[in-house]
């Protein structure tokens, strides 16, 4: 048998309305719906080269060149479901690479599982709804199965069949909306999302109120904000939801501290900047770690980068900004920077990735 092979890529996504807490650990069913933006694969993606031939006697996975076990419930669930649905049982070889530093503490599992499920579905020529399969790898991975603005519907069925993601608006809907990822730390997080949310479900009295009474309305409001391309409303809802997620982390026993001193400085900077501008020009959101993801419109990117560079002076001048911008100009610095009330913090930010909204998984090559 000749080698059959595919190469595919899948994106990272950032939740604006967060998923935190499961109602079923095994099926990975969330307490609440969530909504994310898919980031441009130009800056952040996982690429998989997957092949099969008669010489392969067992499944194997490498991530960035290093061997990785497939013998975990999450991988096994994805592989078994894909095999059952396609009726294909040949063994596969998977080489997975990230185009961004894995050590940067950026959500690589969402892109990783989305890419695994998409590339195997291509190899097995399986044409069906795939987000529910990716969800079994990692909850947030189901949202990486689509581009643009994506909602993961909580669903109501106990078998999880209706807990799927779908595209709310396409990647072209709001091209002025840009994203700056401020990499604060490249340390591995102290408590993983999976363990952290388990602890919150067990101990936080606030988590159910959030899931039942706050998120449903917030999802409606943010969809309206996106449909109207209303930046102020989008940024405010995103910041409130990030803060509420971290409030639940604090309401957890023992508490989960994902933000650090630099994250708090970034939060202050964003609010002071918006005050100085007398309009909302920046929004932030933080996942289970100290790195910030800022929302900004294209016309303000240069000014914001100049402010970040001023408040977080760097020893990494050459590569401080990567992606759609790769330099910072002091001439873009506004006169009011000194009245932002934030004390400069040397090397608080390691580097900044300038990206935008992008497409869902892509088939790059196939030979079947
Ligand atoms: C804070 O999807 O990593 O990033 O389902 O256990 O794999 P598991 O968790 P994961 O959790 C992501 C949590 C979050 C918020 C979000 O992406 O919605």
UniProtKB/TrEMBL annotation:
GO biological process per UniProt: cholesterol biosynthetic process; isopentenyl diphosphate biosynthetic process, mevalonate pathway
Recorded GO MF terms: ATP binding; diphosphomevalonate decarboxylase activity
Alphabetized InterPro entries for the sequence: GHMP_kinase_C_sf, Mev_decarb, Mev_diP_decarb, MVD-like_N, Mvd1_C, Ribosomal_Su5_D2-typ_SF, Ribsml_uS5_D2-typ_fold_subgr
Gene3D superfamilies: 3.30.230.10, GHMP kinase, C-terminal domain
Reaction catalyzed: (R)-5-diphosphomevalonate + ATP = isopentenyl diphosphate + ADP + phosphate + CO2
Domain Diphosphomevalonate decarboxylase-like N-terminal positions: 10-165
Enzyme's top EC category: lyase
Alphabetized UniProt keyword annotations: ATP-binding, Cholesterol biosynthesis, Cholesterol metabolism, Lipid biosynthesis, Lipid metabolism, Lyase, Nucleotide-binding, Steroid biosynthesis, Steroid metabolism, Sterol biosynthesis, Sterol metabolism
Cellular component GO terms, alphabetical: cytosol
Domain Mvd1 C-terminal: 179-363
Superkingdom of the organism of origin: Eukaryota
EC numbers, comma separated: 4.1.1.33
Metabolic or biological pathway, per its Swiss-Prot or TrEMBL entry: Steroid biosynthesis; cholesterol biosynthesis
Biological role: Catalyzes the ATP dependent decarboxylation of (R)-5-diphosphomevalonate to form isopentenyl diphosphate (IPP). Functions in the mevalonate (MVA) pathway leading to isopentenyl diphosphate (IPP), a key precursor for the biosynthesis of isoprenoids and sterol synthesis.
Family stated for the protein in its record: Belongs to the diphosphomevalonate decarboxylase family.
Name of protein: Diphosphomevalonate decarboxylase
Native organism: Oopsacas minuta
